């Protein structure tokens, strides 16, 4: 085939436009996916604003290089497979027509972390679709904001359950980032108290925070607290089961602390999850958690600077555990899809996607994703 493939290309911070690339010739083991939907992630917003330092403090710390096709939250259909073929994560061959969700990252498969069953984003030589993999060199199409996307060998690829619609399946990567809640339950139970019916506070209930809220509810949490500055997000959090919603524009830090403690028998939340995407909220989270509780920092993938933490008063004397989450587990993709598929009638998953844009409107999509009234914003490459 000789036809061109359209993509939304970010050439620099604040500069994005549609470009055309050659239809790719696949090498052995590569997969060509026809993109159905690609989500706008908080990372994409950071990149568009010029906040591009990722994986700070790790062997693959980097500044994102332009030009770039964003989009690492993807769902689509296999269009072609190169050479001798490729396997899905279930070890079955991929065929044209298979509906899939690809992993957001490509691990090397040979470093210490890859060989010892760590989360795949620990890899010392990690590549990321829509982030480290730019579009300057062939085959160019390494992000989901395009009509087609090339998936490299070693990419974990997952078949989508038949009963899971695309507009929910596209949330799989985000839902897979919630593995910190599983670790928090183990930690909290080890220090005392019941290992179920926890109180959980989510700070920042955008798409990532909302997925944590959904996961916490499905795990059986007792009290579920949502904290954000956008009324529409708090309203949706209540629809998904939040028992207390606090608007940071209408409360100060002391009032929020008092109300969280009042909602949790005067103790503070058992687990607090920071999904705000700004570093300043970590200090609030350390105050909102109870003695012996767990704080999950899941929204600080991009380095935006340090904040003041008192190791004694904030962590040690209160026996607070802090879990840092730098990405999703590859082993969480399939369970996340099964979890969502089994609860489609129980929870209003159809309310999570609020906007869809074509490739030519990618800049508007990034803008809208930061406004009240939006939750998950999608790029639909074939939308006029």
Flag low-confidence runs: none
CATH class of the largest domain: Alpha Beta
- Please tell me how large the radius of gyration is: 20 Å
Number of strands: 19
Number of domains: 2
Query: Which percent band covers the strand fraction?
Result: 25-35%
Largest sheet: 7 strands, mixed
Report the total helices. Answer: 12
What portion of residues is helical? Answer: 25-40%
Cα end-to-end separation: 23 Å
CATH architecture of the largest domain: Alpha-Beta Complex
The CATH superfamily of the largest domain is identified as Medium-chain alcohol dehydrogenases, catalytic domain
CATH topology-level fold name of the largest domain: Quinone Oxidoreductase, Chain A, domain 1
Q: Which assembly state applies to the chains in this document? A: single chain
Q: Structural class of the secondary elements?
A: alpha/beta
Calculate the mean pLDDT score and round it. 95
Characterization of the model:
It is built from twelve helices and 19 strands. The chain folds into two domains: 4-175 and 329-379, Quinone Oxidoreductase, Chain A, domain 1 (Alpha-Beta Complex); 178-324, 3-Layer(aba) Sandwich (Rossmann fold). The model has no long low-confidence stretch (mean pLDDT 95). It has 384 residues and is of the alpha/beta class. It has helices at 42-49, 112-115, 166-169, 172-176, 179-190, 207-218, 231-239, 253-263, 281-288, 311-316, 333-342, 362-368; strands at residues 4-12, 15-22, 31-39, 53-54, 62-63, 74-81, 99-102, 105-106, 127-128, 148-151, 157-159, 199-203, 223-228, 244-247, 269-274, 289-297, 321-324, 353-357, 376-379. Strands 3, 6, 7, 10, 11, 18 and 19 form a seven-stranded mixed sheet that branches. A six-stranded parallel sheet has the order 14-13-12-15-16-17, sandwiched between helices. A two-stranded antiparallel sheet has the order 1-2.
């Amino acid at each position: 085939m000789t036809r061109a493939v359209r993509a939304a290309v970010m050439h620099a911070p604040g500069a994005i436009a549609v470009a055309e690339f050659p239809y790719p010739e696949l090498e052995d083991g590569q997969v060509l996916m026809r993109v159905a939907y690609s989500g706008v992630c908080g990372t994409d917003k950071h990149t568009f604003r010029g906040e591009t330092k990722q994986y700070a403090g790790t062997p693959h710390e980097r500044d994102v290089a332009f030009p770039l096709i964003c989009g690492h939250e993807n769902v689509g259909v296999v269009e072609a497979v190169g050479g001798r073929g490729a396997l899905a994560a279930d070890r079955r061959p991929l065929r044209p027509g298979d509906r899939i969700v690809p992993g957001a990252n490509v691990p090397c498969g040979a470093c210490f972390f890859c060989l010892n069953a760590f989360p795949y984003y620990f890899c010392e030589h990690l590549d990321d679709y829509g982030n480290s993999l730019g579009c300057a060199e062939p085959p160019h199409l390494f992000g989901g904001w395009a009509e087609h996307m090339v998936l490299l060998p070693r990419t974990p690829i997952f078949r989508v359950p038949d009963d899971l619609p695309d507009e929910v399946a596209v949330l799989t990567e985000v839902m897979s980032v919630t593995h910190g809640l599983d670790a928090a339950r183990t930690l909290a139970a080890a220090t005392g108290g019941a290992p179920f019916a926890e109180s959980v506070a989510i700070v920042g209930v955008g798409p990532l925070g909302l997925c944590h809220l959904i996961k916490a509810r499905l795990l059986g949490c007792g009290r579920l607290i949502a904290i954000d500055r956008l009324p529409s997000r708090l309203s949706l959090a209540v629809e998904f089961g939040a028992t207390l919603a606090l608007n940071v524009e209408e409360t100060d830090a002391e009032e929020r602390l008092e109300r969280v403690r009042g909602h949790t028998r005067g103790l503070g939340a058992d687990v607090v999850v920071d999904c705000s995407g700004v570093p300043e909220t970590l200090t609030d989270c350390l105050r909102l958690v109870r003695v012996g509780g767990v704080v999950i920092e899941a929204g600080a993938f991009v380095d935006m600077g340090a904040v003041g933490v008192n190791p004694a008063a904030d962590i040690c004397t209160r026996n607070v555990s802090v879990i840092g989450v730098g990405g999703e587990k590859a082993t969480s993709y399939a369970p996340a899809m099964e979890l969502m598929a089994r609860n489609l009638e129980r929870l209003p998953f159809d309310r999570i996607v609020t906007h869809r844009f074509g490739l030519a409107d990618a800049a508007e999509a990034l803008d809208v994703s930061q406004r009240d009234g939006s939750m998950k914003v999608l790029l639909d490459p074939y939308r006029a």
